[in-house]
Please model this.
Amino acid sequence: MAGVSRGTVDRVLNNRGRVDLATKANILQIADELGYKKNMVARNLALNQEWTIHIIIPQHQEDHFWTMVYDGISATDGMLQQFNLSLHFFQFNLHSVEDYLEKLEQACTAPSDFVLIAPVFTQETLSFLKTLPKDRARFLAINSEFGENSEMIYVGQDSFKAGQIAGNLFHNSIPSIQKQILCLTLGHDSSNAIHIQRKMEGLQAFDREYKAGFDLIPVTIEAFRNEADLKASCQAIEAQHPSVEGIFFTNSRAKPFIDASGYFKSRSKAPKVIGFDLVRENINLLKDGLIDYLLDEQPYAQGKLGMSMIFDHLIYGKALQSTRYLPINIVIRENIDDYLSLNALLQD
Model:
């Protein structure tokens, strides 16, 4: 119909080799009229195409949040193997920027077709990416938004919205006109973690918009794994801020502080507490009444959806959405068991 050879048609439809622009336009028009759609799966199988995906996440054995991410990624393994996609994990010590950079360099130096990354150290990640060639593998980030870096695909929570949700919960559960709220990060400096910064910005935005009367006190405790240091930090915080009415944990690590803090000696006077994620310790604290609200960022879904998007892109040629936010679910003591049952059913 186009008056050209099969070889020319093949080059146009598979976008390889040089073809006169007028001829190319004619072939594409005829293909469109005939309803032609490239069968990417058949093409990849015919070519016996193999794909390599590098996964850069924290060591999941040491943190239940990252265990759930790992399980979500691993849930796609059977599907990936059928289409010659192989996963290579580069797991790092969550508390060591040096180990993170070492694993990042290993993953980016070795050949790959895509990289899924948890960029927990923002500045180091940005600096490293600038050293990579432009033809590097594409990146998909989970859990930590990447600011203005539009080249990074993102799957996870909207951290700004998470902060707004926390603001709404505090505003409606603390009757005081002025509300002193401790914003606690247990881990490395929150100024080097975009997702934590965005949570704080969302909380501040809610306060401004609704004149909620928040007195926000940001505190980072890096030495939380040392019991003596954590106890000393708790005592110093309590002495300086004896009238705290709310505690906002910016990550899933609520238990070490709650266990060491004097704020919870009297249940009737304990502050309202908002934490993140359904790690085992937080579930128990919620059921015991020591956490009032858990905001679930769905780590399992982040891992699984991130891998599914990469799969669809490599195998089916689907365009990648630059940002894919997951809903943030509010979990309380009254709905926790039903919520966990539904999650288990969906993950089975």
About this structure: The chain has a mean pLDDT of 89. The chain has 14 helices and twelve strands. The first strand starts at residue 51 and ends at 58. The CA atoms of residues 93 and 103 lie 10 Å apart.
